[in-house]
Amino acid sequence: MTQIREIRTTWEKQPDGFPDFLKENSDIFPIIESERKKENEALVQEFSQRIQKKLRQKPKDQKRQKQWEQKLEQELEQDFTEFLGREKILFLSEWMSPELLNAFIQETKHFTVRVREFDETLTPAQIWQTLRNYFIYAMIVDMQGEKQNAGDPILAYSLLYPYTDNYIDDDQISKQDKERYNQMIALKLKGESATPQNPLEEKTCRLLDMILDTYKEPAKKKIAGTLLQLLEAQNNSIGQQKTDITEEQILEISMWKGSTSVLADYLFATTDWTEYEESFYLKFGFILQLVDDLQDIEEDRKSGSHTLMTEAEKQQKLEQYTNHLLWFTWNVIREFEPVNPELKGFVLKYCVEISLLTAAMNPQFFPRKYIEALEPYLPFSVGFLKKRKKQQEKLITTYQSNNLNPEGVTI
């Protein structure tokens, strides 16, 4: 695929020295004074304590638990809206006009309602999985100058994540059953007959129909082809557990999996597709994949999953790879000219800052001087991030004990 080769070429030509663009672009990456850091820390602590208090209120009576979960979702939505209005971390309310921000909040609520209507048995953890993908889609919608719209394609695509991921990751399900499940999905995407054999497969087929029935040829063929590529990439990613996998293979898997997943979001966000935009969103998907790999480095090391970041850590080159990612992020997003440039600055700031924060929260993998050099650009102190990481681990344990663990809890 020509576009994948382009991603590789762009990736390989990036420098791996310290990201000097941080110093040179103070309008986007200002040095955060200690007083502002303390304000940010107090806000995060406040909302974290709210969440923990609500979790401790879970009733023991199972009959009342469903009602409690629904109330919890509503309260978390309200907290989320309030947090967006008050936060001075990413300054989303300043990057977006009040109209855009309100549209984003309202359509996110609509999306959550539709998710619950489709399957009321989904846990808050699974709903959070759908929301993580929806947020990426929502950013793309704004950059494309489209109206926020939680329509059937993105609803179904986002819902596929908890269904397919949880099934494939379940050790209790045989390899043969997983292969048959993936074959059924492939048949549906190819327009061939596929017979679901259990409730999960029925839901999966319904979701695929919701996507494909929205489009007519040749758009339907393009959508189906992209989802087939993503299915193949996910299957190939199983190879990351092999001990003899090469760095070359890891790079190829990461590029395919990350880029194709975000390309699908782009295809759902607009109907006016261009090669220029497809090229960017493929690179954008690779960026998000690498950010995920950096965030999951500790977990991947323990599970034996080989990513570019785990391999870099083994070779004591994680600082260089993180810099490489930061330069790649800066150059790819900075050079892109979206239909609506209003949110571009936020997307750039978010992608850079999440990598900086991840590095600071895992200082054991980096030289001390490197973390000290990054700290001025962080919205929090390194000491607070260390404390938050420990608190976060406790919070995740609490979520898991309540069957509520949303992957990627950050406050």
Offer a quick outline of the entry.
This protein has 411 residues and is mostly helical. The protein is built from 19 helices and no strands.
List keywords for this structure.
411 residues, mainly alpha, 19 helices, disordered C terminus
Secondary structure layout plus pairing:
Elements: H1 2-12, H2 21-24, H3 34-55, H4 62-86, H5 92-95, H6 98-118, H7 124-143, H8 152-169, H9 175-189, H10 199-212, H11 219-237, H12 247-269, H13 275-295, H14 297-303, H15 308-314, H16 318-335, H17 344-361, H18 368-374, H19 382-401
Helix pairs in contact: 1-13, 3-4, 6-7, 7-8, 7-12, 8-10, 9-10, 9-11, 11-12, 12-13, 13-16, 13-17, 15-16, 16-17
Q: What report would you give on this structure?
A:
The protein is mostly helical and 411 residues long. 72% of the residues lie in helices and 0% in strands. It contains 19 helices and no strands. The radius of gyration is 21 Å and the shape is globular. The protein starts with a helix and ends in a 10-residue tail after the last helix.
Mean of pLDDT: 87
Shape field? globular
Q: Count of DSSP E strands?
A: 0
Beta-sheet strand percentage? under 5%
Would you tell me the structural class of the helices and strands?
mainly alpha
Number of helices: 19
| Radius of gyration, whole Å | 21 Å
| Termini Cα gap | 39 Å
Assembly level: single chain
Output the helix-strand order: HHHHHHHHHHHHHHHHHHH
Helical fraction equals: over 70%
| Low-pLDDT ranges | 404-411
Q: How does the major sheet shape up?
A: none
